[in-house]
Structure formats: C-alpha cells, structure tokens
C-alpha cells in the first residue's frame, strides 16, 4: 500500500515540495492509516482532531488516541472541542459537524501556514457517495465520485478499499478506534454501507475496483460535457445574462447541456425539461423562477436576471413627467419616445405603453383577490389569480406581484404581462417606456 500511496501522490501532483499538510484524523482506521503513511513519507505535517462530544467517553478516548499518537511521533496536534449547544434541530447534526470541521481546518490553514488539508476518504466512501447520489437523482457530476483534490484539499487514500486499509493497519500494528455508530442504519450512508453494498458485492465481489474504472470513464464524460457547455454558456450584459437557445432541437444530449447551462442560476433538470417544451413550442415571454433568478424566453434568447424583490405594502403614485422618481422602495424610470417601434428590453422590469391611453398619476400596488385585466396576446378578460396559476408563478412569489393601475384599470402585471388596452399599436404616435427597479 505504501508504494501505491506514493505513486498516487506523484501521478496526481497532490503534494508539492514545500507543502505543509494538515491531516484530518478522527481516530478511526482510515485516518490513522493516512497519518501513518504521511509520517512515513516524510512530509511536513500536522494533525487536526475534532471532538464533536456526541458519544460520551468514546469521543474522549478518540481524542486521547490521536493526541498520544501525535506526542509519540512529535507531530503538531490541533484540537477543536465542539460546544454541544451549537447542535440545532433545524439543521442535521452531520451538517453542523461538517461546518465546524471545515471552519476549524480553514482557521488552521490561515494561522499555522498549512497549504493542504488531507482527508482519509477511501474507495468505499467513493462507492457509497455514487450510490447515494444515484438513488437521490443526480446529473453526471454526481456520478463521478469524490474528487481526489480540490482547492487546498487532497484525498490520498481514494485508491484503497476498506479491506486493504484494515489489512495494512494490522500489518503495521497501527492502533485505531471503531465508531460503533457506523453499524447503525440511522443515516442514509450507513444504510448504503451496511445493507446495499454487501448485496451488490454478491453480484460483483470486486465492486470497489470496478467502480474506479467506471469513474474514470464518467469523469472523462463530464469533461466532454463541460467543453460542450463552455462554448454555449450565457454572456453577461449589463447585469443580466443572455443565453442563445436557437441551437436547441430537443435531443437528449442537448437537454443535458441545457440543464448544465442553467444550473449556475439555481435551476435543475425539471426546469430544463419545462424550458425545453417552451423552446420547442415557441412560447414567447415564458418565465421561469429559481430561488434567486428569473429566466425569460424570448425569440430564441433566454434572458436570466437576478430576481427582483417586488414585495411592497400600500399604494404608490407614479407621476407623468419623464425622468426617474423614487417611489417607496422603488426607482421608477419614465422615458418617452416618438413612433411605435419597440426596442429590445427586459420584460421582467420594463414595459412600453401608449401614453395617450393612460391616465396619470398611475398607481403601483400589490395585486389583490378580485383583480382582473385583459392580458396582452389573449382574448377576453382574466382574473390576475388565474393568470398567475396559468403562468406557473410559484406560490412563494405571488405575494410579491405588483400591478400598475391607470384610472382604476390594470395596465401591467409588473414583470409579467401588459394589459391589451394600453399596448403599442400602429396608431401610436409616441411611446412611454416604464421601468420598475427596486433600490439596490
């Protein structure tokens, strides 16, 4: 195992000359073997141990084992004892523990000058991660396994199976402690480890090594996907992102690329499928929402903007004069143009009106039950509530929807749809551009 360890580090350039490596050591067999291998290799190192104080005396004995090992081998020992009060029912213990762990590592890197943090993830951890991601549903990147290295982070034991690690620990007389909680199926990963993997190994006893070959192929596939995405990614223009989708024909490989293109903005595969349908059916003005972004499909272009918080209480009056006025939490920009030729614009914040059809001052207010208007491009009258349902505006965003009124008539569902009565026509002599932006 020692030679395989050195070969992996060299071939993957995990540790360079002059690196100072901090090893995360829990006291379990994996991390104790990693500490042994790192010490034997002569690297400049230190050990970080986190006592989560969740397992009573066992936690204290884990800490003592790691401290004693460091003392015996003259390795700097760094300890973080977690305050049990930080464990909050609103967040899983595992998530809290992970945050505490990596916050501690970052502090040590900054204060002690460590250039790398080494963790003891192994081939079995990789297998469990892939199976867990596959079960929950994931894209290609979720099937490529645990990365061997990341920014300031290395995992030099990924080549070794659990069986190999145990065998090496026994042959080198390395002490370790077993975490009995790993035998319980309270957590999803434990259930995969204790129940699913043994069944799969009945089909393929060499499951871990087979997975390594599969991961190499999937990692190559992921790189090809990244290249395909890179040439099509959105371009940022004046605070929003423009994504050309004229190339999209609905092929399965294109759907995967589309998913990756919109993923940075908080959209997933289900959104990509809905977007695919809108592109293929040629639905103009179709809107999509994520937690922080809006996507608007318009004539082969996808406009992505940060979602503007338009929630407001009460009513605000908008005067007739051209210029910018501050109305409550908003800046309202009014600009008049001669003619009736519509320039390109962002429909999530901007609309064009025939000012001769408007009665000033306009009123900006939250929508309310019973509101109705005549949606542009549709025949007849429609309740605003029904329009929002048909437009698939999420419930969480409905409370933020504003309407712009002219003499008691809705002229615009702000950011969504104008009223047909106030649209630009061939008879329009001049236009009003009205833009609603919340203060930054």
From TrEMBL:
The lineage of its organism: Bacteria, Pseudomonadati, Bacteroidota, Cytophagia, Cytophagales. Signal peptide: none annotated. The keyword Ligase applies. CDD domains: TilS_N. Belongs to the tRNA(Ile)-lysidine synthase family. This is tRNA(Ile)-lysidine synthase. It comes from the Bacteria. SMART domains: TilS_C (SM00977). Keywords: ATP-binding, Cytoplasm, Ligase, Nucleotide-binding, tRNA processing. GO terms for molecular function: tRNA(Ile)-lysidine synthase activity. Gene3D superfamilies: HUPs. It comes from Marinoscillum luteum. Its EC number is 6.3.4.19. PANTHER family: TRNA(ILE)-LYSIDINE SYNTHASE-RELATED. Ligates lysine onto the cytidine present at position 34 of the AUA codon-specific tRNA(Ile) that contains the anticodon CAU, in an ATP-dependent manner. Cytidine is converted to lysidine, thus changing the amino acid specificity of the tRNA from methionine to isoleucine. InterPro entries: Lysidine-tRNA-synth_C (IPR012796), Rossmann-like_a/b/a_fold (IPR014729), TilS/TtcA_N (IPR011063), tRNA_Ile_lys_synt (IPR012094), tRNA_Ile_lys_synt_N (IPR012795). It is found in: Cytoplasm. It catalyses: cytidine(34) in tRNA(Ile2) + L-lysine + ATP = lysidine(34) in tRNA(Ile2) + AMP + diphosphate + H(+).
